[in-house]
Write a structure and sequence with these properties.
This protein is an all-alpha fold. The protein has a domain of 170 residues. Helices cover 81% and strands 2% of the residues. Helix 2 packs antiparallel against helix 7. The longest helix is centred in the last third of the chain and has 73 residues. The chain is elongated. The two termini are 45 Å apart. Keywords: Membrane, Transmembrane, Transmembrane helix. One of its GO terms (cellular component) is plasma membrane. InterPro entries: Myelin_PLP. It holds the Pfam family Myelin_PLP.
């Protein structure tokens, strides 16, 4: 009985779901905090301006993470339904088997597309990691090591592809804030905040990699379940044909007697 219950457990789907849950939790938590530091404590407090679309991206990434968690739960439920004796009980008739195959194919398509989305999000997440490494190197060489020497150094956001809102220039006004920081205290504070946010971006990328691993495992599991349901359909048709043949033979034997 215990072995039968173990056989009904969808271990592959369970492992995939755990990977996705873990990756989503790490990704959403670290990315939200890293963007919060970058938006409020770096751009607004130090440079004196904000980027509204970054706040939108902050919320969108969290929403995508929540959707991924819900989708992983759905795939986990389907994995349990299509595993072991549960598959025989749920997908027993031809229509049920066909519905299971259609569901497996649909989930495979959605999982493949979501996997591509997460690969793209991983590529986007590499950008702040590269920027963090560049600015961190600049801080180590020009700020921390030369903080006591009195040498003047500046960090300009334009050098890293970040610009203030240029729409103010079109109406004859200067955009709010500043593009560079030269004050030693502000530079030290900027580098401290970058040192705090940078590792969070790196961990967020690691979380995205874990999600991609989980979704790839889900794809393999769904393909396996699709094949099993297809074989179940063929076996069901074969058993129906054998039963019909036995019924005909029994009817003939009964008639001859």
């Amino acid at each position: 009985m215990a072995c039968e219950n173990i056989g009904n457990c969808a271990f592959a789907s369970l492992i995939s779901a755990l990977l996705v849950f873990f990756g989503v939790g790490v990704y959403c938590g670290t990315l939200y905090r890293a963007l919060q530091i970058f938006i409020t404590q770096i751009l607004e407090d130090i440079f004196g301006f904000n980027v509204p679309w970054l706040e939108v991206i902050q919320i969108v990434f969290v929403v995508i993470g929540v959707v991924m968690g819900l989708f992983a739960i759905l795939l986990l439920v389907f994995g349990f339904l299509a595993t072991g004796a549960t598959r025989k009980n749920v997908y027993s008739g031809n229509k049920c088997i066909m519905g299971g195959r259609v569901s497996a194919g649909f989930f495979m398509c959605i999982s493949y597309l979501l996997n591509l989305v997460w690969i793209g999000m991983l590529g986007v997440g590499v950008v702040p990691v590269v920027a963090y490494l560049m600015v961190s190197s600049r801080c180590d060489n020009s700020v921390y090591n030369k903080y006591q020497t009195g040498q003047v150094t500046c960090i300009n956001l334009n050098h890293y592809g970040i610009y203030r809102n240029q729409s103010y220039i079109a109406i004859g006004q200067l955009p709010p804030g500043k593009e560079s920081v030269c004050d030693p205290n502000d530079l030290r504070r900027l580098c401290d905040k970058i040192a705090e946010a940078g590792p969070l971006f790196c961990v967020a990328c690691a979380g995205a990699i874990v999600i991609i691993m989980g979704m790839t495992n889900f794809l393999l599991t769904l393909a396996t379940n699709y094949t099993r349901l297809k074989i179940s359909k063929e076996l069901t048709e074969y058993r129906d044909a054998v039963d019909m043949e036995e019924l005909e033979l029994n009817s003939r034997d009964g008639g001859s007697r």
